[in-house]
Design brief:
- The chain is an alpha+beta fold.
- The protein is 31% helix and 35% strand.
- A hairpin with a 6-residue loop joins strand 14 and strand 15.
- The radius of gyration is 34 Å and the shape is elongated.
């Protein structure tokens, strides 16, 4: 088991009093590197674990002890997930000494006594399309769906990711994201979730909807977590394509002076594009009332358009196709427009929706 013991005198500048030989296996440095202050243990702590480092090296709690999960940077530059058991004690001289045992999280998973998964859970992990995994309290994979191991390089990781951490499998920036969510779960959050573009084990960039949940023992203590990540890449791409299409349509409508609308005749409401609100000179709203539409029609054309709508569109189900004038409320400018539209009826023949466009033909 890769483990190391430190004795540290806590002060403004902590001083390493003792360090065991296991430090070279765990962190890649010699005991002399720490005893001579060439290397500082505090400086090896991941910056996102600053809250843990502050607690660990604080002299404000001289009789504290406990167990923590912490990330340390190995001499090779990579992050190691470590379990830290610590105890602080005060000496007769009033100084505070910190005794620390650091253990490689991966070596702890190899301890005997692991329980096998139930046949039902194994069947789910074998056949699911989602990425599903379980981790112990030290952020080490203890089970995973088949599709998560599919992209593993057997020369680097072997046939399975079990017993590994995210820092073994992914670039650090992605492992940091996953660890942050897990840290929230272990702090007591009932679920930690995030949608983010990320890199899979086989190096492919995808959008994943990540959810992580705590696993409790019978006494309610958190002993691990499970995660479900769903690939929503196609959904994200479709949404992006829709946004780009809508933006292209908006720009096209704006340059041509054309705005679109949908009128809900049974509710007396309508909504429209921003371009049409600008064209008609009316305020931006999610929903307008039909009275706002008729109010912008020129008084001399109002009776004509109402008669046309009633006699041709409503009575004969003809498409609306009419030129008329409007008076814009914002600047009182008179503009000629062409209205186009089609009527939709319900199963009983009642008119319910009117869809169409209005174009500023003074621009043409």
């Amino acid at each position: 088991m890769a483990e190391v013991n430190f004795g540290i005198a806590l002060a403004a500048q902590p001083q390493v009093l003792s360090v065991s030989k296991g430090v070279e296996t765990l962190l890649g440095y010699t005991p002399h590197d720490f005893l001579s202050s060439k290397v500082s243990l505090a400086d090896l702590i991941h910056p996102h674990d600053a809250d843990i480092a502050e607690r660990l090296f604080s002299v404000e709690t001289p009789k504290e002890s406990g167990t923590l999960n912490i990330r340390l940077r190995h001499a090779d530059g990579r992050i190691r997930c470590v379990r830290c058991r610590y105890k602080k004690s005060a000496t007769l001289g009033g100084k505070v000494v910190l005794d620390v045992k650091l253990q490689d999280a991966k070596s702890l998973w190899k301890a005997p006594g692991r329980q096998r998964l139930s046949p039902y859970l194994e069947a789910m992990l074998e056949n699911t399309d989602d990425f599903i995994f379980f981790k112990d309290r030290n952020h080490v994979f203890t089970a995973a769906s088949r599709n998560m191991t599919a992209g593993l390089n057997p020369h680097l990781f072997g046939p399975s990711l079990l017993g590994l951490t995210d820092y073994d499998l992914f670039p650090e920036k992605y492992a940091d994201i996953y660890y942050r969510l897990e840290k929230q779960v272990f702090a007591g959050l009932p679920v930690a979730s995030e949608i983010r573009e990320t890199q899979t084990i086989d190096g492919k960039m995808v959008w994943l909807d990540n959810h992580k949940y705590p696993i409790h023992d019978r006494s309610g203590r958190i002993i691990g977590l499970f995660g479900v990540s769903r690939d929503i890449t196609e959904h994200i791409k479709a949404a992006q394509a829709l946004r780009e299409s809508e933006e292209f349509l908006r720009q096209s409508q704006e340059s041509a002076g054309i705005g679109s609308y949908v009128g809900f005749l049974d509710k007396g409401e309508w909504k429209c594009s921003n371009v049409l609100e600008s064209l008609l000179g009316i305020a931006k709203k999610d929903l307008h009332i039909l009275a706002e539409w008729t109010a912008v029609v020129h008084p001399d054309d109002r009776a004509m358009t109402e008669s046309y709508f009633a006699d041709e569109v409503l009575a004969k189900s003809q498409p609306f196709d009419k030129e008329y004038r409007i008076i814009r409320p914002t600047d009182h400018a008179v503009r000629w427009v062409q209205g186009l539209g089609s009527l939709e009826r319900d199963s009983s023949g009642q008119p319910i929706v009117m869809r169409g466009t209005i174009q500023d033909i003074d621009m043409v």
